[in-house]
Amino acid sequence: MKRFALLLAGTVIGVLAGAWYGWSVSPVTYNEISPDQLRAEYQADYVLMVAETYAADHDLGEAAVRLSRLGQADLTGLVRRIADAYQAAGYPEEDCARLFDLARDLERYSTLPSAAP
User: Fold this and answer.
1) Which of 38, 100, 102, 107 is the most buried (most CB within 10 A)?
2) CA–CA distance from 109 to each of 6, 69, 75, 106, 114 (Å)?
3) DSSP symbols for 53-89
């Protein structure tokens, strides 16, 4: 019974000491960057995540806003280039289809005539 009590006391002391160290001595610091500061491969992953979100919610305006954070002028071309690269690299077909669908819808969205005032 004495061994169990020592083990339990040691575990509690260790957890408390670790929590104190993590919160007081060396807390986590967050460094936020914008998507346009990511490396090219991570930007491609970001575009894929936007395409997956668009496939779920079909909010093209929000997808365009998210993609605009990459700082690219031609969003449709960007998505299409990434889709072609993913397809050539052998990524899953559903990922490529989501990218191509997003590119197609962005192209349609950008060619819609604007309403005259």
Assistant:
1) 102
2) 68, 18, 11, 5, 10
3) HHHHH--HHHHHHHHHTT--S-HHHHHHHHHHHHHHH
> Same structural domain for residues 13 and 50?
no
Question: pTM higher than 0.90 for the full model?
Answer: no
Q: Which amino acid is at 93?
A: E
Q: Are residues 51 and 101 in the same domain?
A: yes
Whether 102 and 51 have beta carbons less than 8 Å apart is answered as yes
Per-residue pLDDT tens digits for 24-60: 888 888 788 888 899 999 999 999 999 999 999 999 9
Residue 26 lies in a domain: yes
